[in-house]
Amino acid sequence: MDSVDRKLFLGGRLKRLRRDLALTQTAMAGDLGVSPSYLNHIERNQRPVSAQLLLRLAETYDVDLRELNRPAGQAGEAELAEVFADPVFLGLAVPRHEILQMADEAPGAADALLRLYRAFADARTRERNRLGEGSDASDDTPTERVREAIQARQNHFPDLDLLGEALYAELHRNATGETTEALARARLSERHNLAVKVMPAEVMVEWTRRFDP
Questions:
Q1: What confidence score (pLDDT) does residue 27 get?
Q2: 9 — alpha (psi -120 to 50), left (phi > 0) or beta?
Q3: What is residue 48's DSSP assignment?
Q4: DSSP 8-state secondary structure symbol assigned to residue 10
Q5: Are residues 28 and 18 in contact, defined by beta-carbon separation less than 8 angstroms?
Q6: Which of 123, 199, 128, 160 is nearest to 37 (CA)?
């Protein structure tokens, strides 16, 4: 039963395969019959690889499924970003390009860091539960609660994935060649009166994204 029900998160391997084949996400998504956003979720380990997609990979790119399915690490960009967002790293401001580099070029070290962090986070949660009402309320912040909820779900939220797929389809329904980014910006502007700007790193400093009302 476990071997059947086990979710396969193969984001790092799928990304490396795509790069080895010199394919963009859009090109590979087209070959596999999925949307680029779906493929992006898989590469970031935010969605498991289905059996059907594994078969398509094997048929399309002559991939050895045993090689893809061997035990692998889970530490992608999203997982490492979650680690470095913890208050324990406050003040370090690890930039996104270093997180990406670690995930792509040092997967073993990234996996080790992720395992260590999760053990630390679990121990911290157990200690808070043990202390109960006597714990320091300053640690029980909304940010901490959200982070722990994300950890509990391993950053996997099927309902949000489905909504994202539906939004992608809606954006492209009447599109005439625009990129997904351009369509999303237009939607935010028209429906929510929000403008999206890409700012240089020296302006953003430690921020990856920032809402400035």
A1: 92
A2: beta
A3: P
A4: -
A5: yes
A6: 160
Residue of 57, 61, 121 lying closest to 88 (CA atoms): 121
Three-class SS string for 105-124? Answer: HCHHHHHHHHHHHHHHHHHH
**Which pTM does this prediction carry?**
0.37
Q: Using CA atoms, how far apart are residues 184 and 186, in angstroms rounded to an integer?
A: 5
Q: Helix H segments across the chain?
A: 2-5, 11-20, 25-32, 36-43, 51-61, 65-69, 77-84, 96-105, 107-131, 142-152, 158-173, 180-192, 201-204
Fold classification of 2-69 (topology level): 434 Repressor (Amino-terminal Domain) (1.10.260)
Give the CA distances from residue 66 to residues 46, 62, 72, 164, in Å, rounded to whole numbers and listed in that order: 22, 12, 12, 30
Question: Which tens digit of pLDDT belongs to each residue from 50-90?
Answer: 888 889 998 999 887 766 665 444 566 777 888 888 888 87
User: Residues 71, 77, 82, 83: is their CA dihedral positive or negative?
Assistant: positive
Residue spans per domain, the chain: 2-69, 77-152
**What secondary structure letter does DSSP report for 94?**
-
Q: Are the CB atoms for 11 and 42 separated by under 8 Å?
A: yes
